[in-house]
Amino acid sequence: MINEICYLHGGHVELKEDMHKFLCRDIVTCNLGMLSQIERIEKIVNTDVTVLISGETGTGKEVFAEYIHRNSNRKNRRYVKLNCSTIPDTLFESEMFGYSAGAFTGALKIGKKGVFELADRGTLFLDEIGDMPIDMQSKLLRVIQEKNFLKVGGDREISVSIRFIAATNKNLPTLIKDKKFRKDLYYRINVIPVNLVPLRDRPEDIILMSFYFLDKSNHKYGYNKKWGVESLKTFLNYSWPGNIREIKNVIERLVLLTSGEIIENSDIALEQSSDKIDEEYPVNTPINIIKDIKKDDLSLKEIVSDYEINIIKESIKACGSLRKAAEFLKTSPATLSRKINLHKKNMF
C-alpha cells in the first residue's frame, strides 16, 4: 500500500500525487466506498431531500453534513446543529421548538427561538438522532411532514422551510426492534442514506490522512516534520478505533512532541488499541479519572470541581450520551447539564 501511494526520498516518505487531487472540500479520500458516497451526495445536494448519515464515531459525519449545506442552494442561509445526545429530556422540547414569553417558571420574558425557527430557510443537522427521546421523535416527524410547529406555550403555528440532515453512530433498525426508535421516522429521514466507511477499512486513506494532517500541523506550528517508512507501517497496522478524529490528534501530538525532523516508529505510541481500552476501561466502569493534577494554585474546591467535570465528560464519552451517563452516575441528565454549564461559566 505504501509503495503504491508513496516513494522514498532522502530518508523520508513523500506522496506520489499532489494531495489536492484527493481533497474534496475537506474530505480526504481515494477509497472507492467513500467516493461513491460523495458521488451520491453530488446528485442530491441542490434538492431539499432529507439525508441520513451513518457511521462510527469520528468517521466525519459532521464534515459530510457541512459539505452538503455548503454546496446546496441554501448555502447562504443558516446551518444549525443540534447534538441529540447532549440535551436533557426535560429541555428537549424547548430546544427544538422554542417557547413563548412566560411559558413556564424561569422562562425568558422575551421567549426563545428553538432550532426549528433558527434553521428556517436553511439546514438543520440533527447529530446522534438515535439518542432522541421517543416522545420527541413523533413531534419531529410532524414538523418534517407538515413543515409547521407550535412553540412551547404558544398559540400560533409557525411555518418553516428546513433541509434536514440526520446522523447516527447507532444501528437504527436494531433500535426500532427494541422500541427505542420510531419506524415511521426512520423511513422519513432515510430517504438518501450515506454510509461512511471506518478508517480501519480504508488503508489508502490512512496514508493520505497521515500526510494531510501532518501538513496542516506543520503549517499550524511552523514545523517541517516528515514521515519515516516504519511510522506509516505502524499507522497501517493500527485499528484506529477513534477513526479520523483519532488520527488527527495523534499526528498533531507527534508534530509537537517529536524532536527530530523525521517522525520515526520509535516516536509513535499507539499502545491504546481498542482491545487494550476495553481491558482497562470495561463497559461497567467507563471513567478515566486524571490522577495527576499538578496545579498548586488551585484550591481544594477547584480541584474537586475539575475532577467532577472530568468524570462527567469521560462518562458521556464512554456511555455515548448524556442520558446514559446520568444513568451510570445515578443522577439526572438535568444535573449533569447544569454542572457542565456552570463549569463553562466559571472558566470565563
What can be said about this structure in brief?
With 348 residues, the protein is of the alpha/beta class. The protein has helices at 2-5, 32-44, 61-70, 89-97, 115-118, 134-146, 172-177, 183-189, 203-221, 229-237, 243-257, 274-280, 300-319, 322-328, 333-346; strands at residues 6-9, 12-15, 23-24, 27-28, 51-54, 79-83, 98-99, 112-113, 123-127, 148-149, 158-159, 163-168, 192-195, 226-227, 262-263.
Keywords:
348 residues, five-stranded parallel β-sheet, 3 domains, two-stranded antiparallel ribbon, Helicase, Ruva Protein, domain 3, Rossmann fold, alpha/beta, 45% helix
Gap from first CA to last CA: 48 Å
Structural class, judged by helices and strands? alpha/beta
CATH-level-2 architecture of the largest domain: 3-Layer(aba) Sandwich
**SS field, number of helical segments:** 15
- What's the CATH topology label of the largest domain? Rossmann fold
Strand order of the largest sheet: 6-9-12-5-13
So what's the overall shape? globular
- Indicate the percent of residues in helices: 40-55%
Say how many strands there are: 15
CATH class of the largest domain: Alpha Beta
Name of the CATH superfamily of the largest domain = P-loop containing nucleotide triphosphate hydrolases
- Report Rg: 23 Å
Low-confidence stretches are 271-294
Nearest-integer average pLDDT:
84
Main beta-sheet strand count, sense and barrel state: 5 strands, parallel
Order of helices and strands: HEEEEHEHEHEEHEHEEEHHEHEHHEHHHH
The number of distinct structural domains comes to 3
